Amino acid sequence: MAIDIKSLNHTQLNDLIQKAQARQDELQKEKVTRVREKVQALLKAEGLSFEDVFGAGASVRGGGKRRGTGSVAPKYRNPADPEQTWSGRGKRPRWFNDALKAGKKEKDMAV
Asked: What does the pLDDT look like over 17-29, one tens digit per residue?
């Protein structure tokens, strides 16, 4: 099926591109499904499970183990209220910005 793309206007060309990309996505998903079925059949034929081969932390969808999001030690402490701390990551807390505006330096608030 040959399409003369020179005869298409802008809208028709964009529509064709979207349809082609959707078809590529479908083909990729079909390929992944076929490969997954082959792997599962091979594992079953060998008498093994996915976890036996790839470990208990691995998932069928791939990726492997995820890092946990643990807490980070505080890097700064509010001089007005020592209970308030900040790790130095993410958006600056209001008390930190207020202290800077009041003339304090970052090193003055360091833990």
From this structure: 999 999 999 999 9
Q: What is the Cα–Cα distance from 111 to 92, expressed in whole angstroms?
A: 16
Residue 63: what pLDDT?
A: 57
CA distance to 41, 42, 61, 106, per residue, from 34 (Å): 11, 12, 14, 57
The angle formed by the CA atoms of residues 50, 38 and 24, to the nearest 5 degrees, is 110
Q: How confident is the model at residue 50 (pLDDT cuts 50, 70, 90)?
A: confident
Full-prediction pTM beyond 0.85?
no
Locate 6 and state its tokens.
């020179």
Residue 83 CA to its chain's centroid (Å): 33
Query: Which residues are CB-neighbours of 104 under 8 A, at least 6 positions away?
Result: 79
H or E element in which residue 29 lies: helix 10-46
